[in-house]
């Protein structure tokens, strides 16, 4: 077995793989992240053949680790980067207890955090990646970690996972040497990872105060709408994988967030439109 | 209408008003309930005493200066039955 240690935000992973290649790809993409040398990890992710002979014959990667889903379908070896990413996300989604975990992207400017949450396809990941190239600090495209004691957002700046049309859009503004390999025809469509800007990695221990929450929706005429606090609360419980597990701590953290963070629903049809809407909202913040 | 009801102990519930709805977090079950008026008011006037729907309707009328439309006790009873099924109120 081969293994690799990675640190993303407050989380330390040990990745164990039957194959060296996925770990080499990960090591290259995470080469500028801090390396933990003490052999300690919060989570272990395992990339192993579905059956022993599938290590060599039509190799397929089964994702497991400290936390796993019994019905997770194996992926072909050339999609092992995606398998690793899914495994790392799964550990956070099912196992993390130190923060209230919101399925949201986050970027920071002036010490204040913009969070974006919504269904797959809403554009939250792509918008965070785009803003990260335009003066915002990238804090994460998948999970925002809300500290229940302080109300601050912790960064989780893993590789940015671009899907389908977002890949071409980001190639126009991100240099080629920050892209990982293109994985075509995965269960999530075409996937390509992007290394976040270096300042996102250098500052990944810096927390910041949540200042604005958006529910973006791609493909509609540009508009901003107010939302009721009840709707916001319910949608955030749906966007959190550990709200129930955290019990009263999660309830107090989420109610405080809903009471204090301005929130809008945002419709848009292009990145430029979204950026204009975000800039207008940002300029009105206290 | 003579059935007595008692609310879960208030220290075991956290009420948090949002907009038109109120969250009620129940510590013993870890469940977050989202309730509309008049449920928060019912839970408040019940305190920790065992009361009938008529008693509760009377307390609501006193505290919130309700006009007596004659069916307040029926409305309260319907909510009490729902609250029993949620585990927020018990029959005594």
Compact overview of the structure:
The complex is a heterodimer of chains A (286) and B (92). Chain A has 286 residues and is an alpha+beta fold.
Counting structural domains of chain A, the number is 2
Cα-atom radius of gyration of chain B: 13 Å
Rounded to the nearest angstrom, the distance between the terminal CA atoms of chain A is 53 Å
Strand content of chain A: 25-35%
Shape estimate of chain A: globular
Record field, number of beta strands of chain A? 16
Helix fraction of chain A, binned, reads: 25-40%
The class by helix and strand makeup of chain A works out as alpha+beta
Q: Total strand count of chain B, please?
A: 5
Unreliable spans of chain B are none
Distance between the termini of chain B: 13 Å
Number of self-contained structural domains of chain B: 1
Oligomer: heterodimer
Q: Provide the low-confidence segments of chain A as ranges.
A: none
What string, H for helix and E for strand, traces the elements of chain A in order? EEHEEEHEEHEEEEHEEHEEHHHEH
What proportion of the residues of chain B is helical, as a percent range? Answer: 25-40%
| Number of distinct helices of chain B | 3
Major sheet of chain B: 3 strands, antiparallel
The fraction of residues assigned to DSSP E strands of chain B is 25-35%
Report mean pLDDT of chain A, rounded to a whole number: 94
């Amino acid at each position: 077995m081969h293994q690799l240690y990675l640190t993303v935000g407050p989380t330390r992973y040990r990745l164990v793989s039957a194959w060296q290649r996925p770990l080499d790809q990960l090591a290259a993409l995470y080469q500028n992240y801090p390396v933990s040398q003490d052999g300690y990890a919060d989570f272990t992710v395992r990339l192993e053949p579905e059956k022993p002979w599938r290590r060599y014959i039509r190799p397929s990667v089964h994702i497991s680790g400290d936390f796993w889903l019994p019905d997770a379908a194996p992926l072909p070896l050339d999609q092992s980067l995606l398998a690793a990413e899914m495994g790392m996300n799964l550990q956070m989604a099912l196992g993390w207890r130190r923060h209230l975990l919101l399925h949201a992207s986050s970027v920071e400017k002036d010490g204040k955090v913009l969070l974006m949450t919504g269904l797959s396809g809403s554009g939250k990941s792509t918008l965070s990646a785009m803003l990260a190239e335009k003066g915002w600090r990238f804090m994460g495209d998948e999970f925002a970690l809300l500290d229940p004691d302080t109300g601050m957002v912790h960064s989780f700046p893993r590789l940015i996972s671009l899907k389908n049309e977002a890949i071409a859009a980001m190639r126009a503004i991100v240099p080629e040497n920050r892209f990982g390999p293109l994985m075509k025809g995965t269960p999530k469509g075409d996937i390509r990872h992007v290394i976040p800007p270096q300042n996102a990695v250098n500052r990944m221990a810096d927390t910041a105060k949540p200042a604005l929450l958006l529910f973006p929706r791609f493909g509609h005429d540009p508009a901003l709408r107010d939302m009721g606090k009840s709707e916001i609360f319910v949608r955030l419980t749906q966007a959190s994988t550990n709200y129930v597990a955290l019990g009263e701590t999660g309830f107090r953290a989420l109610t405080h967030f809903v009471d204090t963070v301005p929130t809008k629903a945002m419709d848009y049809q292009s990145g430029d439109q979204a950026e204009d809407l975000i800039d207008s909202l940002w300029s009105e913040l206290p | 209408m003579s059935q007595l009801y008692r609310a879960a102990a208030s220290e075991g519930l956290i009420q948090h008003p949002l907009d038109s709805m109120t969250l009620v977090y129940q510590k013993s079950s870890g469940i977050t309930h989202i309730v509309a008026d008049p449920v928060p008011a019912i839970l408040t006037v019940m305190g920790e005493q065992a009361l009938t729907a008529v008693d509760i309707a009377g307390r609501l009328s006193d505290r919130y200066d309700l006009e007596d439309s004659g069916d307040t006790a029926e409305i309260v009873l319907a909510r009490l039955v729902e609250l029993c099924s949620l585990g927020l109120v018990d029959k005594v």
